[in-house]
Structures are given as C-alpha cells and as structure tokens.
Write a structure and sequence with these properties.
Elements lengths: L9 E2 H8 L3 H9 L8 E2 L1 H15 L4 H14 L6 H4 L1 E5 L2 E6 L2 E4 L24 H23 L3 H14 L4 H13 L3 H14 L4 H13 L3 H14 L4 H13 L3 H14 L4 H21 L1
Antiparallel strand pairs: 1-2, 3-4, 4-5
Helix pairs in contact: 6-7, 7-8, 8-9, 8-10, 9-10, 10-11, 11-12, 12-13, 13-14
Length: 297
C-alpha cells in the first residue's frame, strides 16, 4: 500500500479521519481564522493543519498563534499562509520559525540561541530574502508540475526532472524527495529510493509519509526490524495513520506476534470502517481469532 503522490483536494471528512479531528474542532479553527473555511482542502492546507495540531499539542493557545501568524505576515511580506509556507514550531512557550538556517521567535524576529555560535554569524533578526521567497515559490510550482505529470501518466523521467527542479530551488523540499523516492521504488531502484527517503527525513523529521515509505521499502526488502522502526515512527508522528497500522499488523503476523497484529488490525478498523482494506482487516482478525481458539484447545 505505497501511497501515491498527494492528491490535490481533500474533503472535510478526509481531514478529520487523517488527523483524528472532529468537525467541531475544524469549525473552531475556522472561526479563529487559523485555517480557511472550506469544503475541500489542498495539500498545503494539510501542512497548515498538521503544524497547528503540533502547536496545540504543546499547549500554545489559539490567540498566541494568531498573533504570531500576523507578525510573520507583517515581517515577511512575501508570506501569505505562514502555517503552510514556513517551518513553524514551538520553543517552550514561544512560537518559532526556521529561516535562513536559524530559529527565530515569530513575534519579535529575534534569534533563539540554541544553535552553535558558528551558525549564527551575521544573522541578527528576520532577513529580507525576497530572492529566497521567489525560489520557494518556484520550488512549489515545480513540485506541483511533478504531481500533474504523475497524475497524467507522463513518462517517469519527466516527473523526476520536475521534482529535481523543485529541489534546485529548495533543497529541503521533503515532498519532492519523497516522490522521487517513490518513483525510484516503482522502478525497482531500491537503493536510490532509500537514499531519497532518508534525505526527506533529514529535511523534515516530522514528515510521517517519509517514515512510512521507508518502512515500506524495508518491509519489501525483508529488513523487518528497520521496517518496524519506521512504521512506528510514522505512528508517533501521526497516531491516526491508518496505513501504518495496516502494514504493522501484516508485519506483526509475519513476525509471529499475533497480539500486536490484533492491536493494529483493530486500530486500523477504528480509522477505516469500510472498503476493500477494511474487509481484509476483518478477515485477518477473524483468522487470528480462530487460530487462537484452536491453539487454546
């Protein structure tokens, strides 16, 4: 179940299921202007929602988030949607943003001094990298071009070229790295795919899809301990990652750990109650139940 490149639109139900959110929570964030009110969400919107969830998990209040986002829009005029366009994290009780290789407080623009001194030379506050903003926009455009090419069934090398252009503009474009890894995987170039997935994890350690895909690759290659490790890491980053539960259930069965398999099958069915994969999960659960009954006699 290796995921394809991200689709362009996600329904409200998709978003609620993917992130374990309630419709009430979505409406609340919309009223607070933290996310746009919409019936369909883009991949960029999903990035914003994931960032927002991380901030709230660290007990950053909505009012504080709103102030920080407004500050970023004022200080960085090329940024329209900070939650999706910038890498935003919590730093204790503060909201921080990664820019120009430094971590800065979102409200004041001051450096948060947790980097080695050698990395701080010459950087005092928010830069004015208009050229950098242009490169990021171009990177996003090339990334979208790659998605469109894959969706249209164009030759793989055309999509690869687009994703590599995205990386030229932004070497930390984790989505482009993941999709290059997935193309290499489909072409059975496993060593190349592994390197791309690892690079994506370095670029964005909080990206569950990169962890999941690397787990898939190790699973296919019979590297079971590493597959377990990366599937679990994907679940650490997103506990409602249904496909990670599905693959961990299969892997646990093959490893002779039926209790773990049962746990993950049940977790999967809580997230996906209908469809082809849910039927497989139910059959596997019933098979394990019958096996347990036979062995207990």
């Amino acid at each position: 179940m290796l995921p394809k490149a991200p689709k362009e639109e996600y329904s409200r139900a998709d978003v609620c299921r993917q992130f374990g959110l309630s419709e009430r929570q979505l409406r609340s964030w919309e009223r607070q202007a933290l996310i746009p009110a919409a019936e369909q969400y883009t991949f960029s919107d999903l990035i914003a929602i994931q960032t927002l969830i991380k901030l709230r998990e660290n007990r950053i209040q909505p009012r504080q988030i709103n102030r920080a986002m407004q500050s970023l829009r004022e200080k960085l005029e090329w940024v329209k949607q900070p939650l999706s366009e910038l890498r935003i994290v919590s730093d204790g009780r503060k909201i921080a943003v990664h820019l120009a290789g430094q971590k800065m407080e979102a409200l004041t623009g001051q450096i948060l001094f947790d980097f080695e001194a050698s990395g701080l030379a010459g950087v005092k506050s928010f830069p004015e990298p208009k050229r950098e903003a242009t490169r990021l926009r171009e990177s996003e455009a090339w990334f979208q071009r790659g998605l469109d090419l894959e969706e249209s069934g164009a030759p793989a090398e055309e999509a690869v070229a687009a994703y590599k252009k995205a990386l030229e503009m932004n070497p930390a474009a984790a989505g482009a790295l993941v999709n290059l890894g997935t193309i290499a995987y489909r072409l059975l170039r496993f060593a190349e795919a592994e390197e791309y997935y690892k690079e994506a994890i370095v670029a964005d350690p909080q990206y569950p899809l990169a962890q999941f895909n690397l787990g898939n690759l190790y699973d296919e290659r019979g590297r079971t301990p590493e597959a377990f490790q990366h599937y679990r890491r994907a679940l650490d980053l997103n506990p409602n990652y249904a496909d990670a539960h599905f693959n961990l259930a299969l892997l646990s069965e093959r490893a002779g750990e039926p209790l773990k398999a049962v746990y993950h099958w049940k977790a999967y069915l809580k997230l996906d109650k209908s469809g082809q994969w849910a039927e497989i999960a139910r059959r596997q659960l019933e098979r394990l139940r019958q096996l347990t009954v036979v062995e207990s006699r």
